[in-house]
Amino acid sequence: MKYEYQTKRSILRIVVAIAFVIAIFSTLFYCYIHNLNEFLKLTHSTVLAQPLINKTITTFILLTVLFAVVIVYLILSNSHTQKKLYAFAFTDPVTRKGNWNLFEKEVVSLIERHRQTNYAVVQIDIDKFSLMNDMFGYETGDKLLYFVADTLAKNISSKETFCRIAADNFCLLLEYISDQQLIDRMNFFYRQINLLNNIIPEPYYMGFSAGVYRLQDRSEKPALMNDRAKIARKRGLESQDTHIVFYDPTTRDTLVKEKLLENQMYNALKTNQFEVYLQPKYELLHNCIVGAEALVRWNHPIAGMLSPGEFIPFFEQNGFVTKLDFYVFENVCALMRSWQDNQLSPMPIAINFSRLHLDKPDFTVHLQEIIRKYDISPSLLVIELTENTFLNNIDTALSVIFRLKSLGFTVSMDDFGSGFSSLNLLKQIPVDELKLDRGFFCDTIHEQRGESIVESVINMAKKLNMSTVSEGIEETAQVDFLKKIGCDIVQGYVFAKPMPVAEFEALAFASEPCFAEKVTK
User: Fold this and answer.
1) 466 within 8 A of 485, measured Cβ to Cβ
2) pTM value?
């Protein structure tokens, strides 16, 4: 290794230095003895010459030996210091394996030496590792990281290498034959790593996410390879469909775009670039508008009008969606205040709130402050919470629902059927409205079994005093089916697309008598 080469070179330099010093001492000694002899001859004291010379030789030998001992000590001390510095610079203190500094050097060396080998850089992350630390302690967490590193070290070849980057992130340089071969190998790693019964005090399954970058340009820096593997891994966390994701250039382009949006989102909120659109909700019994769902568009000064799919998922990741939700909610309240001031009968508007609000204790307090500001009846506002919100933390969700209902809000379970829906969930959660996801019925209305399932859900909702709303309706056949089984309200492109507020007002208030009838019942 490079360290050993540097140590040998240092020792050689010191030996040469010792030889040089001995040569100088020998020269000085020779000159001294010669001059001494000349002096003794001149003073006719040759009798004293030999004892003096002997003493001088003895002194020189002693000094030389002492100097040699000091040099040897310095060599050994320097070697020990270099070993310590090497360990500090190139060894991870937790795994006691190579760190990123050594990994970079080895990647460059391996790629250069094995020119016929195809490589991939893989970044691995242990899912919910911080939770494991909280459950079992940091000492156990460190033991686990050591075990992971030891397992990887035992299962890679001499053409491969790895390191722990930071926390629970590992980076590997692996031989690449095909995508499937790499997936199979990663799954093998995961199975081996989960044999950790001697470390974790109770049964525990560790999940992993991995990003893979297939090496194409062998001159790329290891840091760039790792960054691209990291990009792929993060994309895998978002999709949650697979724990191994391969990098492609469009992934990077998407992240760059998202970063640009992130840099602009606060200013966009401040300058009202986000615009509220309303999509009408139609009552099937009377075929008239009885409300709307508030949606948002970003009127970007450069990119133009951006749809929710282009920024909402990203805002959900970085938490900005909570600010945007309240922005939409306040705009809806201001709109209702405007309707009332202009003697127009306000109609219920649904606003979808992210699951991230449930962990904020001031969520309902903030809602209450806004409706008081605009003097709006909360009964006209429908708070939509997605089905997954309830599945992830039912106790917290129940607490929030009870607070919302006590304040007078209508609560809707949005996207029912998009996840692992449970009819028992309907019994547990006292929502006022059940909103069926388009995917729940669109693929089932053409088969008897599917129709029966949808009809059963709607019948159960009615027995639990919940109104039913179906969204994403695009075909008249779907409308006919939903009307036949007793669905209350529908929304979708077959009736109207989301539209600016002015267009909605022109459309909706023409059917105000129908809404008035709905309200008085």
Assistant:
1) no
2) 0.66
